[in-house]
Amino acid sequence: MAEESGTGRLTPRQFAAEESTAAPRTADPDKAARGKAEIIRDGAVVSDDWNILRPAPDAPLSMEALPAGRVVVPLEFWIAHADALAGRETAAVWLASHEEPSRLQPWLSTLRLIAVDFPRFTDGRGFSIAYLLRSRLGYRGELRAIGDVLADQLFFMRRVGFDAYAVRADKDIHKALQVLAPFTDVYQGSWDNPVPAFRRHQRSGPGAQDKAGK
Predict the structure, then answer these.
(1) pTM higher than 0.90 for the full model?
(2) Is there a domain that residue 112 lies in?
(3) 97: domain CATH number?
(4) H-helix or E-strand containing 15?
């Protein structure tokens, strides 16, 4: 892998050093402390008006009490109220890291947005969920990482199929954007490029042409 240098962009290692000295996680990472909600989508920082609903144990969600505007509801609530929610362009769903993405299969062709929650940055199950949604279940809508999302994860999230990222509210989202694509090439195949490097790049040297023709 070739690491970007001399461009004024932070490398993942440099950003990780800054992250380790930053403030601890806020109570609700999806509420933007930046004054207005911003996410990274398709390689740019953009405003966002989707409201991630995380009900408290003593205050369950109800259809009657859903806030106005665009809402992203938990999986169980979506399934329980699918008949009412599936036809709404202002409704989407989020998955916890222990939940099975195949449960959304009946609605994958119409869902505009699926969010995957990372309860801690050390919890890697969201990567598997994203990869399954893209590669096995064929989901093609927006796939967003939410929760404890840090800058040095973004490159790897993109590799498994995420195309939007709600960076943790106490982090600088513009700095995070700088390390979204820190490498010019990758060795392993994944969702973003299933062909591994050894198949993409023809070998050079004596006998390479003969081997390529076999």
Answers:
(1) no
(2) yes
(3) 3.20.20
(4) helix 12-19
